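Dear Dr. K.,

Following up on our conversation at the group meeting, I've run the structure prediction for Palmitoyltransferase from Climacteris rufus. I'm pasting the input sequence below exactly as I used it, so you can double-check it against your construct before we proceed with anything downstream. Let me know if the numbering doesn't match what you have in your notebook.
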Amino acid sequence: MSVMVARKKVVRKWEKLPGRNTFCCDGRIMMARQKGIFYLTLFLILGTCALFFAFECRYLAVQLSPAIPVFAAVLFLFAMATLLRTSFSDPGVIPRALPDEAAFIEMEIEATNGTVPQGQRPPPRIKNFQINNQIVKLKYCYTCKIFRPPRASHCSICDNCVERFDHHCPWVGNCVGKRNYRYFYLFILSLSLLTIYIFTFNIVYVALKSLKIGFLNTLKETPGTYPSSLTFLTVLEVLICFFTLWSVVGLTGFHTFLVALNQTTNEDIKGSWTGKNRVQNPYSHGNIVKNCCEVLCGPLPPSVLDRRGILQQEDSTAQEGSCPRGPSAQEPPAAQGPGQAQEGHSVLSSQVPAPCASDAEVPREKQQTPGELPAASADAGRAEH
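The predicted structure tokens came back this morning:
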């Protein structure tokens, strides 16, 4: 016979979260689904640094100082740590409204706006919020069914509202928001320093070799045939660093400007505080040091997603085995021999909580001898009294 046993399957909340994100390590790592450019970022950083440590660092450590590869390694490790922290963390995603909450908000909006005549557009869903004696508008998100907090915006790529949304960065494979902006800034800052460092010492390496054997001989130097593999790799490093300098160093300068003003990329692109109205930024303290301390050194808010929280779901599964019979369904003792064991009893019969005698056993119980059933009924009656 088959026994239906209800088992509870543990389901984590990250498995049911809406939006277009991917999760790894049981919800500990959160990224965007489009990660191709992030892998390119890893390849460029790891490849360039590997070539530098394998070739130029050995020569420069002997000719100049052993501190050169040590400082390069510190910059490399710091840049990689901040990159992974930016890419693998929750940028500040705001949970969507539950169905009951969404229905209540919709009811509240309809009561506030009233009935809109047919053919007219409904008024925008906006709430006014005061910050530092200045009115800030909170916009309604039709996807998340919430009024977004100040400085939050909906990312069209990840399909989530992100608190203090700065921008979506494909190079790190994640949104940049309130919870990972400081790590993003430290990443591009350390990457700029690392790029300048490698580019500078590549030039120093070529200059030192040229002083000894000449520039042309340096280019033709073995190993390998002309053009030598060493020359090709050195030129490749210089080219990568040269083009990276223009982008990464420029990006670092732009974000340094934003940090000094306590402003986001999203606000700068939209002209939120520099438009025609010349509205003053309510989040700026009017002091560069205070703005930098708030953005880079302020307390980091915890994630509100609770990605690894547990959801319980019942999952019924069938297990093969025989059912134990109750006292009324057992064969009478007189019908068994003293050394015989009852057939059909399972070892795990005591673990089954509910009786499961099948309909096929009922006729056999009715075929008992006439004297046995009244005796069983009499015993049961005496037991009740």
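Two things stood out to me. The chain has a mean pLDDT of 76. The first helix runs from residue 36 to 63.

Best regards,
J.T.
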